Amino acid sequence: MQKDTVSRALRLARRLALMAATVLLAPVLANAETEQMPEMVQRSGPPRAVIEMFTSQGCSDCPAADALLKQYLDQQNIVGLSLPIDYWDYLGWKDTLAGPRNAERQREYAKRFGIGTVYTPQAVVNGAAEVLGSSQSEIDRAVRATETALSSSRVPVHFWHYGSNIIIEAGAAPAGSEPKEATIWLAVVQKSAQVSVRGGENNGKTLTYYNVVRELTPVGLWNGRPATIRLARAAIMRPETEDLIVLIQEASTGPIIGAARLGD
Asked: Which of 178, 148, 171 is nearest to 248 (CA)?
């Protein structure tokens, strides 16, 4: 990953963190409304893995990977994200869910992993390993390996909404760890989307995608100390989106050390 790309992401995160006192470096909100019992608190333990699936409607190998991601999503301890890319659009079908930021994120991963190229379907597990997205055995091995490698650096994340606000609490770094500055990402997610493809390699097929990322935005920085973020729900959600997921990720595309899902 190029240093200027990381710097841009971190500068953006810092600006967002300073806006309207969004980030409060305290374990709880300094706001009277939190004295009442919050709604829909995400209090479960950290997920075993975050699986980012880079996929495309124009890729004939991708439907199998999209179906596999759904199997992982059915597990309560896995966070899965579909990130459709646009660089296969020239094959004859413009991906209706893709965005350039997804492809940019995948390229940053490729640079960090030193693989020299991007491809689909690709799964990035816990921000720490990349594997073929249609291979369950490879994904399972990556989940086990990264879960073990990151076990001593996991950060607890509590995530809920209260009234018109979204509240994110990131805990402190585990005792004895050496925390690195991390980006707090907020993913705005469409739980499912069905697309009838009328061109390209999947011409004539109706494809279903799950946990489609419609927006992935840095909303703050974490530096090892507890942090609380409050955001206006109306400013975040879009008509087609139904879920929110928080990631705490070293730098901007490093290991993912914390995650939580808002849920229904």
From this structure: 171
CATH number of domain containing 203 = 3.40.30.10
CA distance 65 to 21: 41
In single-letter form, the type of residue at position 103 comes to A
pLDDT, residue 89, reads: 97
List, for residues 168-223, the tens digit of each pLDDT value.
Answer: 999 999 998 889 999 999 999 999 999 999 999 999 999 999 999 999 999 999 99
Beta strand 243-250 with 122-125: parallel, antiparallel or unpaired? unpaired
* 181: helix, strand or coil: coil
Domain that holds residue 245: 3-261
As for how many domains the chain has, the answer is: 1
3 state SS of 72: helix
Highest mean pLDDT among 11-15, 75-79, 172-176, 255-259: 255-259
Residues 6+ apart with CB under 8 A from 245: 79, 81, 186, 187, 189, 211, 259, 260, 261, 262
Q: What ranges in 114-264 are assigned the alpha helix state H?
A: 136-149, 233-236
Instruction: Report the interhelical angle of 136-149 vs 62-73 (nearest 10°).
Output: 50
